[in-house]
Amino acid sequence: MEEGGTSGPVPPADRTESPPPEARARPTEARPEEDWAIRYRYLLADFDNFRKRSEREKELGARRAQAELLRELIPLYEAFGHARRSIPEGAAELARGFDLLEAEWQKFFQRESVRPVATVGAPFAPEDEEAVAETAAGEGRPEGTVVEVVQQGYRCSGGLLRPAKVVVARRSEPPALPAPPSEQTDP
User: What is the pLDDT along the chain (187 residues), one digit of tens a residue?
Assistant: First the structure.
C-alpha cells in the first residue's frame, strides 16, 4: 500500500451502506401519498376556478355581443320613427302597417329589456345623459331638470347602450361671486 492512497478494496468499516429497502420505504411512502393528495386537491380547485372563470367570460361575451347588436339596431329604430312621423294624412293603410311594425319593435325591446333613459321634466342624470345645452330655469322648468331630449339614450340589462343628449334647465343668473377684499391704504 502506498502512503496517502488506497489500493485495493475499501475495508467494510469505511463503506457507507444505505439502509435496507424496507427501512427506506416506510418513512417516504406516506409522504408521496400526502403530496399527491394535496396536489390533487389543488388541481381540482384550479380546474373549478378555470371552469367558473370560463363561464363568466362566456356570459360576458354573450352580453357584449347582445349590447353591440342592440347598439346597431337603435339607429334603425329611430329611422323607422322618423318615417312613421312623416306619413301623410289619408294614408291609413300605410299608417296601419307602421303601427304593426311599431308594436313589433316595442315587443322586441321589451324582450331585450331595452328602455329609454331620458324624460322631459325628470331630474338630469349625468350617468345616463349628456347635457348638450342649457336653458334658463323658470316656471314649469325647475333647475336641474331635462327640458328637451335632443337624442334619446337607451339602457338594457347589460348597461348603458347610448347616453341621451338633453337640454337642461339652469339658473338664469350665475351665482354672485364674493367681492374681493378692499385694499386699504394708509394716508
Answer: 445 555 555 555 555 555 555 555 444 455 767 788 899 999 999 999 999 999 999 999 999 999 999 999 999 999 999 999 998 888 889 999 999 999 999 999 999 999 999 999 999 999 999 999 998 888 878 899 999 999 999 999 888 999 999 999 987 665 566 666 665 555 4
Q: How far apart are CA 18 and CA 70, in angstroms?
A: 75
As a CATH number, domain 113-173 is 2.30.22.10
Alpha-carbon distance 34 to 48, whole Å?
21
Query: Scanning the structure block, which residue is given the C-alpha cell 353591440?
Result: 68
Q: Where are the domains of the chain?
A: 21-112, 113-173
Contact (Cβ atoms closer than 8 angstroms) between residue 98 and residue 83: yes
Global pTM reads 0.62
